[in-house]
Amino acid sequence: MMNESVGSGSAMSQAPSEPCTSTEGPGEERDESWICVGSARSFGARTTLSIHNRIVLLLRENSKWHCLDAICYHAGGPLSQAAVERVDNRVCLRCPWHSYLIDIEDGHGLYMDLSRRYRSKGARQRVHKVRQDGGQLFVQLCARAESVASDEYAFGAQLPPQVLRQRVQRYVPR
Ligand code: FES
């Protein structure tokens, strides 16, 4: 069992200065479900985005881009400020509010059982796909029909508007 802290969310990126230059999907695809969010080099390690009003966290970890709902499924904590930890070969965010662990690959919530082994509670945080193409980053919002616990907070309805404005660094309108 490994539980190693490998980073923290204190290094928030500034709003990207280079806007998206693509109006189509990545590669040969003409799939409008892929949304161009901007030039990859204009994003720091973490950026909180509003894509079609859904608040998501775009993060780069070990040279790979990930995207998941930015507000913790448990009670609305800001995952942009979560520490990154490796837990049993999973890369997780540890929410700064109540220390819940969330796998950044599949959004599973993890807990430690009585034998001190990490177990999955199943998908709790909605995870979205990210691709880089021609220097641009594209996000495909997860369209899974079954609800995921993080859906409750995904549109920021529980947050006062000024808090929402502070947290979201870039808006991608419809
Ligand atoms: S709000 Fe994230 S663990 Fe409670």
Can you walk me through this structure?
- The protein has a single domain (3-172), classed as 3-layer Sandwich (Rieske Iron-sulfur Protein), CATH 2.102.10.
- The protein has one helix and 13 strands; from the N terminus they run E-E-E-E-E-E-E-E-E-E-E-E-H-E.
- It has one helix at 161-167; strands spanning 3-7, 34-39, 46-51, 54-61, 64-69, 83-87, 90-94, 101-103, 108-112, 118-123, 127-133, 136-140, 170-172.
- The strands form two sheets. It has a seven-stranded mixed sheet with strand order 2-12-11-5-4-3-13, with no helix packed on it.
- The longest helix has 7 residues, at 161-167.
- The chain is globular, with a radius of gyration of 16 Å.
- Bound molecules: FE2/S2 (inorganic) cluster.
- The site of FE2/S2 (inorganic) cluster has 9 residues, from loops.
CATH class: Mainly Beta
CATH T-level fold name: Rieske Iron-sulfur Protein
H/E element sequence: EEEEEEEEEEEEHE
| Class based on secondary structure composition and strand pairing | mainly beta
How helix-rich are the residues, as a percent range? under 10%
Which sequence of strands runs across the widest sheet? Answer: 2-12-11-5-4-3-13
Superfamily at the CATH H level?
Rieske [2Fe-2S] iron-sulphur domain
Number of strands: 13
- Output the number of helix runs: 1
Low-confidence stretches: 1-17
Mean pLDDT score:
87
Shape: globular
Beta-strand percent range: 35-45%
How many domain modules? 1
